[in-house]
Structures are given as structure tokens and as C-alpha cells.
Amino acid sequence: MSAVQVLDPGARALVQDLGRPGLAHLGVSASGAFDRAAHRLANRLVGNDEGAAAFECLLGGLRLALPAGTWVAVTGAWSDAVLVTDGRRTPVEPHTAVRADAAAELHLGAVTRGLRSTVALRGGLDLPAVLGSRARDTLAALGPEPVRAGDVLPLGPEPASPVPLGDLVPVDPPPDGTVELGVRPGPRHDWFDAAAWELLLTSEWTTSARSDRTGVRLEGPALARVPDLVGVELASEGMLRGSIQVSPDGAPTVLGPDHPVTGGYPVIAVVVDSALDRLAQLRPGQPVRLRLVAGRR
Amino acid sequence: MRLLPCGDRALLAEFASLESARAAHARWSAEAPGGIVELVPAARTVLVRLDPAVLGLGAAEHWLAAHEPDAVAMATVGGLVTLPVVYNGDDLDVVAEAWGCSPAAVVERHAATEWVCAFIGFAPGFPYLVPAGAALPPVPRRATSRPSVPAGAVALAAEYCGIYPRCSPGGWQLIGRTDAVLWDADRVDPALVAPGARVRFTAVRS
């Protein structure tokens, strides 16, 4: 059985797959890859099932020792990645499957675009599943522990499907300017006055450095409640990935994959499903605009 | 029941009472069509998460409205879980004041009550229990959270009784402690007390 050794986890590297949906009634969030499209693509590139476990690496810096014959693909955030074999350095282009012909080291440089890279290895990371998933839920502390230097992670058996032909999948890097996220009204949109709605949809928000997989905080103007509901407590209710909850001081937070299952702050709006992956790649300080997406309501 | 918008892949059903929300969660869990991928019960609401490719928001609204249960029809429910408790919590006096009785009477009333798990929140396996019969007086939360509440702590806040599945910060009033393992991800049923389960507490000496 082959295995990969972690030489350096970089800022933070987690094992993720597509999570454990369907357990919220037991207090367990879906968790799973923050950038789901990047996760699926990385796995497809090396011929894995889309839901195989892979590394989710924050800010680059991950270094792995790969056994000879390992296929690897890097998606999501862009960084200068190289495969080092006997001192020879071969660049690893984003969105390209690369094979280590001999034992080699994979080095991810600092990220130049986006925030989180997915590193998939052919066979997937074969760790014990918890409640059917190998995803690390950072809030509930479920699934594999964050990766540390020296960890040896087994790779799964050779998948039935081959590594697909085709050299490079044309995918744009994560944007480095203002990121636009589509939203629809949330269940408590009527807790806020018209001016707060206007501010939500017209302000240029700034991604806070105090953001993580639980939630991405947006800095900007305070969103005021209607006068009758100032100081009123909301009984806890179910939350979603993408729910924009507003704390009593008026600051919005967009919930991420490891969000609490229920929460007591009113949700003014919800980021639409098609925009959720972009949240994973927002860098501290990056500007964000929220746009109302037409819908039935 | 009011159906509130919740983005492009969920609806939030809001009810006038916890009882109605429980009834809806029980009925919808049993009868939900494909496309309803998750039902999250809470104090006055059930969050309905959809796969819009299978069931659109409009169709889901129609189905939920047509299957709104009669709250009266909702009796009980799940199996009975009996939990031994050492009633030695630090906040028995606070609860005694809220309930207008002595600390010994708090223990007596708590152990004489049959509880039902309304929903799970806060942490995996943390049950929000309410009396199956008449309500007990509400208990105020602590003004400041304790940084560390031990696993197995039995605690009260508002109209609920909760049990901490693992050591964590917490703002509820502590009345005792159980050795029962509330949460074990390796068990077939990871949550010892799931929504709908009935719970009895029995006093034991350490």
C-alpha cells in the first residue's frame, strides 16, 4: 500500500471530501471541501471519484513526499507548485495531472491568487471515515485531525478509471479584484429596515482577516434592525452554508462549510449555491459586492 | 405555519409553538418526497433544505403546506432513554430561586419529569429537552459563560434541559452530571438522545 508523507503542512492543511450532509438534525454540519468545484476537478484530473479525500491547503506552503508513480493535481488557489525529483524542479501547472515518475517532493509556494488549494492524489487519502466522511469539521472537531509534519497518510487503491487524457483544463484563477456574490432574501430579511437592505446590496464590503471555515466576516457599514426588533432575541433556528447572519452590532458573517447547525442571529440574506465556492477563495482585505439574484420572491 | 424564504435551496417553516414545529418535523421526516434533503428542527422552526434539481422551491412550498400536521395529532414518539444523574451541580440554588422551591425540590421535580428531545443544537448530540407534560418555570442563562463545562453536565436554560456531550464553554445553569455517553460518532446511532426520544433522569449517589 502506498502512502504520502507530510513534510510541511504550510499554514494549515486539512483533509476534506464532499462532507457528511443529512445529519444536521443530530447537530452535525455537512462540512466538506470549501471550494467544492476545485475539489471535484482535482479528483477528476487524477481519475478519482469526485468525492475522494484530498488536501485543502490554506495559503500554500504544503510540502509532501510522494512515492514513485503517484499522480497529483492542484486546483483552487494558484501558487507556484513544483515537483522536485533528485534536485530537478518541474513546475506543476494548475489544473493539470502530473505523475511523479520517481520518488519526489511536491512543494506548493505561497498563493498568488485565491486562498485555498486542493491537492488530490490518485487513489485518494484513505483515512478512516467518521459518519461516512473523511472531512475535517473544524467546529465540531469531527474527522481527521489537521495535518502535521511527519504524518504518513495512506493512499487508496488504484481507481478503476484511468487518468483522463487531455493536458490542461482551462479554468480561470480565482479573481483578484472585487468578487460579486449573488444573494436571495433570508428568513429574517424583514428584521432589517430598507436602509439596511440598500446598504447590503450597494456597499463594497471587505473580507475580514477573522474569517475561517465557520464563517467569512464582512467589514463595512452596520446593518440596523427595524426599531421594534432592536435587542430582541431570536430563538435558535437552522442555518445553511451561505446564510448571512447579522450580529447585534450590525456586522454580517457569511457562514462556511463548518457552520453551527443552528444559530440565534437573524439571517438577512443567503448566498446562492452557484456562488458558494467563491467564498473559499476570498483573501483578507478583498472587496466583495452582494447582488440580489432574481427569484420567485 | 409561515414559509419564509431562505436563499435558492431552502425554506424555513416557522410555527407558533415548539409543539407544532416538533409535529411538522416528525411528519415531514416520515413522509418527505425525494428532493427534500435535510430537515433541521429548532425551537419554532424547521429548516427544509432542498435539491432544487429534484424539487423546486415552488413545488416544495405546495407540498409542505399540504402536509402541515395537526399539532394535536402529534403525541409521542421515540423510545425511552434513562439517564443516571448525580445531582451535584453548582447552580442548583439559582434554579431553586427560578422555580420558587428548595434545591432538594429541584432535584425531585427534575427527576419526576418525563422529558422529550425537541431538537439537537449547539454541538453534535446536545439535546434540547422539554417536559412531555406541563412546562416548568423558565431558568435564566448565566450572565457570563463558563469557559469549560464538563462532558455529561446536565443543565437548564429558558424552558430547556440540556446535556453537554463533551467538555465545552457553556452558559446554562448546572444541576448535575451523568456518565452516559451522549455522543459517539462510531455508534450506529451516534446521538444517544435523538429528536423525539423520551428521557427520564434518575438520581444516583456519585
UniProtKB/TrEMBL annotation, chain A:
<feature type="domain" description="Carboxyltransferase">
    <location>
        <begin position="25"/>
        <end position="297"/>
    </location>
</feature>
<keyword id="KW-0547">Nucleotide-binding</keyword>
<keyword id="KW-0067">ATP-binding</keyword>
<dbReference type="InterPro" id="IPR052708">
    <property type="entry name" value="PxpC"/>
</dbReference>
<protein>
    <submittedName>
        <fullName>Biotin-dependent carboxyltransferase family protein</fullName>
    </submittedName>
</protein>
<dbReference type="Pfam" id="PF02626">
    <property type="entry name" value="CT_A_B"/>
</dbReference>
<keyword id="KW-0378">Hydrolase</keyword>
<dbReference type="InterPro" id="IPR029000">
    <property type="entry name" value="Cyclophilin-like_dom_sf"/>
</dbReference>
<dbReference type="InterPro" id="IPR003778">
    <property type="entry name" value="CT_A_B"/>
</dbReference>
UniProtKB/TrEMBL annotation, chain B:
<dbReference type="InterPro" id="IPR003833">
    <property type="entry name" value="CT_C_D"/>
</dbReference>
<dbReference type="Pfam" id="PF02682">
    <property type="entry name" value="CT_C_D"/>
</dbReference>
<keyword id="KW-0547">Nucleotide-binding</keyword>
<dbReference type="InterPro" id="IPR029000">
    <property type="entry name" value="Cyclophilin-like_dom_sf"/>
</dbReference>
<dbReference type="InterPro" id="IPR010016">
    <property type="entry name" value="PxpB"/>
</dbReference>
<keyword id="KW-0378">Hydrolase</keyword>
<dbReference type="GO" id="GO:0016787">
    <property type="term" value="F:hydrolase activity"/>
</dbReference>
<keyword id="KW-0067">ATP-binding</keyword>
<protein>
    <submittedName>
        <fullName>Allophanate hydrolase subunit 1</fullName>
    </submittedName>
</protein>
<feature type="domain" description="Carboxyltransferase">
    <location>
        <begin position="1"/>
        <end position="193"/>
    </location>
</feature>
